[in-house]
Amino acid sequence: MAPGETDPFDLFKRRSLPDEIAVMRAAHPRPTWATHDNLGAMAAFWLERHAMFRELGAAVAKGTLDFREGRIAADPYFRWFAPRINMFLNELHGHHAIEDQHYFPVFQAADARLAKGFEILDADHHVIDGLIHEIAANGQGLQKALYGGGDAARAGDTLAGVLDRALVGLVRHLDDEEDIVIPLILERTEAKLGVR
Fold first, then answer.
1. Domain 47-193, CATH among 1.20.120, 1.10.3210, 1.10.40, 3.40.50
2. Is 10 left (phi over 0), alpha (psi -120 to 50) or beta?
3. Which of 105, 164, 174, 175 lies 20 to 30 Å from 53 when distance is taken between CA atoms?
4. Is the pTM of this model over 0.90?
5. For the packed helices 152-188 and 115-148, what is the interaxial angle rounded to 10 degrees?
């Protein structure tokens, strides 16, 4: 990339992946996935995990907004927030580790045309890992502010900003990952890919 040029596949700039990267998406559009004969148990579970990340992330962001706008008091909010954000971050980190160490190498080896897509998804994982740490640090900062007499409003605003940015990137990543991986599974089957 030339100096001053921006990455068109930057997690926060792209709207979706082009067909030359999500090469099987056109043959297997999203509305056909749920009823496709080759949607196996692993792929269905993977989609369920992605749905959980979307839902839990949105719930945590909404709860944080409710706290910031005074619809929930600090202590009940944080008692609700802490276990949910810990689960969200831990599960997301573990999910990405399994993808990086096991699934992505198998999928990439199955079709050389997907190499650029997995390069993009890998870069996303690094960005999201940084955001996981940033969310955790800001959650701890809010806890200190709430229970140590700090500026809870400022800490809540900072956390909300990080959460909002992270969720935009995460949803983009999940959508793009599904557009690469699920059509591959539908085309090749889990058994032939060796991921049952």
1. 1.20.120
2. beta
3. 105
4. yes
5. 150
